[in-house]
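hey so i finally got around to running the thing on that chain from the lab meeting. sorry it took forever, my laptop kept dying and i had to restart like 3 times. anyway pasting the input first so we r on the same page abt which one it is
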Amino acid sequence: MKIIIINGPNLNLLGKRETDIYGSETFEDYFKQLKIDFPTIELEYFQSNIEGELIDKIQEVGFSYDGVILNAAAYTHTSVGIGDAIKAITTPTIEVHISNTFSRETFRHHSFISPNVKGIIIGFGMKSYALALQSFL
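ok and heres what got predicted. didnt touch it at all, straight out
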């Protein structure tokens, strides 16, 4: 099984930014642990702060991988293009958010991605990614 985690803008700063919301662990360290915890999954990771690069990656993997775990971060609430890219591919996608977006600013309550995904996992911290991986098993 081949699954990719795609993270959007500012998630490269996990462990440094707003640790009260996102925790103090870097995603790279967490990703190493995910690979240990899910040894039967061929797991890849991609992060970009650039909307077009995220769309390009979704299109690149969207017909050949077994799953996409997408945390589009702030683009969740603004990007029709990323929502359309998810709608266009055949690979099942899980939308993930580290924080509970519904307990934050009102603009974070809307997602252009949610209507096009298999499921949504929000608010469980970094464990949200593990929950998404378990959903594919």
